[in-house]
Amino acid sequence: LDYDIADKLGEIFVKGEMSFSKDLIGGEIFLDCNSGRLVLDGSLVSDGCYSLSVNGRDLKLNTLTGVDGLKGCNLAVNASGNFKDAENYASISGRVANLVYNGYSYAPIGFEGKCTASAITGKISADDPNVKMQLTARYNIDDEKMLKIKLDAEDFVPADLKLIKTDKRQELAFGLNGEIFDYGDGKTIVNA
């Protein structure tokens, strides 16, 4: 990746407003540049609750990442939580729409995650005509230090997704399950 972001973003237009009170900080920021538009809206309350939404339009991912086949997308993300609540430190959900890679326009891809005092969980799912996929993961933070990963995919057609070049159309389905245990003493066990 090329990290010269300033050149890639080009001229940046930023507009926003903030509000402050004894119990609340809030604001909204609009950002427009050569690589797309972002709107960020967030708040933080004195009891530890926070929320943030990010909406991106016409994001030119190839400009930001340097990956030629990766063109654009729209993005919507919502995050919330409470710094003082061990059962709800953070939750996130979102959707990537209009993602184009190698000329193929993917159906929306959804994601969600949660962080508590005991675990971090997440899920990514796609319901595209050429790949139906769900990836879930859970990392136990407490004593066991275990990562569980599960991937299920069906109707996966790499050629139609333009991931490979071939004249043959192959439709695949597969499932993977795995567990990784970290005992903290340099020993790690992987079960797949």
Summarize the structure.
This protein is mainly β and 192 residues long.
Please tell me about this protein's structure.
By secondary structure, the chain is mainly beta. It contains two helices and 14 strands, in the order H-E-E-E-E-H-E-E-E-E-E-E-E-E-E-E. The strands form two sheets. Strands 1-2-3-4-5-6-9-10-11-12-13-14 form a twelve-stranded antiparallel sheet. It has a two-stranded antiparallel sheet with strand order 7-8. A hairpin with a 7-residue loop joins strand 5 and strand 6. The mean pLDDT is 86.
Write the layout of secondary structure elements.
Layout: H1 5-9, E1 13-20, E2 24-33, E3 36-45, E4 49-60, H2 61-65, E5 72-82, E6 90-97, E7 100-101, E8 104-105, E9 109-115, E10 119-128, E11 131-140, E12 146-156, E13 172-182, E14 188-191
Antiparallel strand pairs: 1-2, 2-3, 3-4, 4-5, 5-6, 6-9, 7-8, 9-10, 10-11, 11-12, 12-13, 13-14
